[in-house]
Amino acid sequence: MREIQMVDLRAQYEKIGLEIDHAIKEVLLSTAFIKGPDVKLFEEELQEYMGVKHVVSCANGTDALYLAMMVLGLKPGDEVITTNFTFIATVEVVALLGLKPVIVDPEPATFNISVEAVRKAITPKTKAIVPVHLFGQCAYMESIMELANKHDLFVIEDAAQATGADYLFKNGTTKKAGTIGHIGTTSFFPSKNLGCYGDGGALYTNDEALARKLRSIANHGMKVRYQYDNIGVNSRLDTIQAALLRVKLKHLSKFNKARIEVANSYDGAFAGCRSISVPERASYSSHIFHQYTLKVKNGKRDELKKFLESKKIPSMVYYPAPLHVQKAYGYLGYNENDFPVTTSLCKEVLSLPMHPDMEKDQIDYITTKVLEFFDK
């Protein structure tokens, strides 16, 4: 049996390596390392895949969030509502811009932001909502957009973990995660469903004026060379990363389907185990399993993790501590017990290995050992 990895990028490379090597070599021969043709081509191809009018690439997913908030003209003191159960970047950029992060609990079943919690958190100072499509499926966007329209708020989707997931509206139409709000953001960190071999990110929007301004801000605020209409930053996707992302984008649907098949195998194996809860799949969203995250009951999470390590099975805790207890965000004034759902999830969640190149014997071994732990 091949050594089990949380994300086996080498196995993926072994399958598509010739395509990757060719794409990178073409960039090396062209020497167009910054803003080369592959960047524009990747944006156009991703636009078509996502069904969105504009894709603006940038240096990483954190920058994508930062650029989104810059372009919307949010001002210091404006409140931005987001989930407590997310990677720090979602809140970090809010604080860096002098905005006020307002964090709320997620839904305990789907891990995604609670619409009711958002509703209760809206004040006259609220200017934006940042739902995070966590672990591979969408937040309840239809209700979030209704709230946003009612209160004249911007919606910035953090879709870094859900590239390729579909949102199903009540009228039967679908849209890709990240293309529903005013702006969507994503990351191409190597472990993502669509990942490069370094850092990379992008923004999605159907608003031409926003897209034009995003391109300017991401390139030092330039409108044309050496003319600066906006205060900007330097946040560009380099050509080599764009070239290999073009290759991976062609395989993305196949990769996501393989992830779903792995998740189905996990679900089937764990169906009779009352000591864990498998990931809930929302009726309004497909799930493309960036992570496969269990909830481990009865305080056994850390013990299970240690047991799996002893069997050479990696696992990860996303996320071990709520944002509101982090020292950097103590100034927000939250109390330790203000977010019971987040606090509970941080003690229960455990993500198992998940990638499109998992083999049957690996899945069988992992599931057998998880069940063995609870049968002890």
Account of the protein in words:
By secondary structure, this protein is of the alpha/beta class. It has helices spanning 9-30, 37-50, 61-71, 89-96, 115-121, 141-151, 208-218, 239-270, 301-310, 340-348, 360-375; strands at 54-58, 79-83, 100-104, 126-130, 154-158, 166-168, 174-176, 183-187, 201-205, 222-224, 227-228, 276-277, 292-296, 349-352. The strands form four sheets. A seven-stranded mixed sheet has the order 1-9-8-5-4-2-3, sandwiched between helices. The protein has a three-stranded antiparallel sheet with strand order 12-13-14. The radius of gyration is 21 Å and the shape is globular. The two termini are 25 Å apart. The mean pLDDT is 97.
Pick out its properties.
376 residues, Aspartate Aminotransferase, domain 2, Aspartate Aminotransferase, domain 1, 14 strands, globular
CATH topology of the largest domain: Aspartate Aminotransferase, domain 2
Shape: globular
Strand content: 15-25%
User: What's the order of the H and E elements?
Assistant: HHEHEHEHEHEEEEEHEEHEEHHEH
Q: Which quaternary structure do these chains form?
A: single chain
